[in-house]
Amino acid sequence: MEKILEINNLFAGTYDGTKEIIKGLNLTINSGEIHAIMGPNGAGKSTLAYLLAGKKDYAPTAGQIQFCGENLLTMKPEERANAGIFLSMQYPVAIPGVSTSNFLKHALNAKRKYQGLNELDAADFLKILRNTAKELGVSPEMLKREINVGFSGGEKKRLEVLQMKLLEPKLAVLDETDSGLDIDALRTVAQGVNDLHNQNNALLIITHHLDLLNLIKPDFVHIYADGHIIRSGSKELAIELEQNGYKSFLEA
Amino acid sequence: MAIDWMNNHLWGDDIPWLIGLREKGQRMFEQLGWPNAKTEAWKYSYFPQQILDNLMVCPDSDSCQCHENCHCHDKIKTPFAAYGIKFCNGRLHSEHVNLPEGVIVKPLVEAIYEGEVKKYINKSFDLDKFPFAALNTAFLENGMMLIVERGVKLSQPIFIHYQQHQKVHTFNNIRNIIVLEKGASATITEHYEGERGSSYFNNIVNEIYAHDESQLRHYIVNNESETAYHVALNAADLRANASYEAFVMQGECAFCRHESYIRLLQKGAAATVNGAYQLCNNGISDITTNIFHLASNTDSQQLVKGVADGRSKGVFQGKIHIAPNIKQSEGHQQHRALLLSDNAEIDAKPELEIFAEDVKCSHGNTCGDLDAEQLFYMQSRGISLDDAKRILIKAHVDEAVATISDTKVKNWLLNIITKKTP
Ligand SMILES: Nc1ncnc2c1ncn2[C@@H]1O[C@H](COP(=O)(O)OP(=O)(O)OP(=O)(O)O)[C@@H](O)[C@H]1O
Ligand SMILES: [Mg+2]
To answer: What is the pTM of this model?
Structure first.
């Protein structure tokens, strides 16, 4: 078992320091584990996800984050990605003028370059892409379209998971990847995530819904409020939450 | 004025109308004066008159010290299957013309001697608006007359290669008269290619006459030396149902201005004038358009996309004029630019002069940095910041290039952009 992520007493906020969002967060994730984070709107879940991916809108004020034994906070976003962090975004970004398949080719080749492998040519890349896309129900037409431009909410989320599968991260952070998915899509996506998960990697799932956690079974569930974890437990915690809401946890 | 008018021995001093025309050009050039910040049409971009010092008009392409690697006499190479016309150091090389039936090309001097060109010269624009066209008229000699005959539809593009290879500072004064007779259809690509380090001043005037039902796709690529000055006026008269599609792509050069002056003279005439500029060092790039809707049922479209980095400057000035009593016409214009450095500059001046009611017009202008969210999205997928920037810049420029309807030319240009932003 390898320690993949270790967050120690983290405080962080907006880059300009005007708003503190994460307040004293501790979290350790080992290889092979699936962690779920649940928390009310505005608790700071996406902020944590962005901070892990290196978005420069947010900055830590105290504490550390180690990723596979390295200081994550000094790494550039692309270095983090190549080292194995993948963030499936709550709001994926549209890029007019860049086709989905071209975007994915750049991403996959960046990773291969980092690993010292040769870049894939168009034909080899398309072969890999087509197979993975098929598994996730992403149509060839969608791959030709400009990335995330005019995609439906569910299409965007499928595409996030497609990217994750192509890049095979060590730590996948899924920020509300289930929101916007219909019932069938939720199953396909969950299947895709489960296929990827093994003893060498880990998942951090941010969600508001028990449905996803019935399909991707977490080893740990954390209740997150006001910038830190207020309770941790097993999947039972999510069931309790579904029945009673956040009230009892927040009062406790 | 640093021009020694008397010492330029131009060909054709036995043709009175030509002499009269040159003198008129000279007088107009002197009257208008060298453009500067106070010249309205040039206020954003102008260049020093000193470039005329030591400027040399080459008597022929060899005597301008075309050095050892001179390619003037090489066969023309085209980047895609095309008919070819070659200019070297400002001179038409008639031995390198390869054209099909139905297309006539002759050196301008020959056409002047034969007299047929007289009805076209200086008829597509007003001399008193264009100082460099006046200068071009004063030095009228080089260039060609190109005619696509009635009903002839060319199956592949005509590629005009303007090559520059010389050590001395030369003045390339070129006038092309391009005539598409009734129902003719052609694609003309002009590729200006200056050897690195060569210094020259191109003063180009293209006069285009598109007769009824004709179609011209006209693509201009300025791939100049960084020490080159290039000024071009592209004047086009479009008759009934004629269509003109232009695209101008400007790379880095000391100063590069492409001005369009397009008159939609009769019903059904339509013009598209699109373009792109991509600058990263010290270059100045100027795309100026003047489109005149002078008849009903005429349409014009413009989309220009620019990138200015380093200490460069991009200028877009676009005028749409719709004359009184014109009906059912549309004129649309968009300029979108990326300003990537604090030391770079973008100036844009859209101008709509609408004197009619039953018409639709629009214009839009944006100028900004690359989108931070898009950059982060790419970085979060492992793409380096530099690569992410390149991908966004290419996507920005590609949008304009994608409008080119000739697939061969479009793919050629998309490739050029890929090389610049790999
Ligand atoms: N760039 C920013 N500037 C100012 N405030 C911000 C910024 N980003 C986030 N916040 C604030 O920080 C808080 C946490 O936001 P965050 O998006 O992390 O919440 P969340 O837990 O993901 O909520 P949700 O469940 O609704 O997705 C919110 O109050 C939000 O408005
Ligand atoms: Mg969120």
So the answer is: 0.92
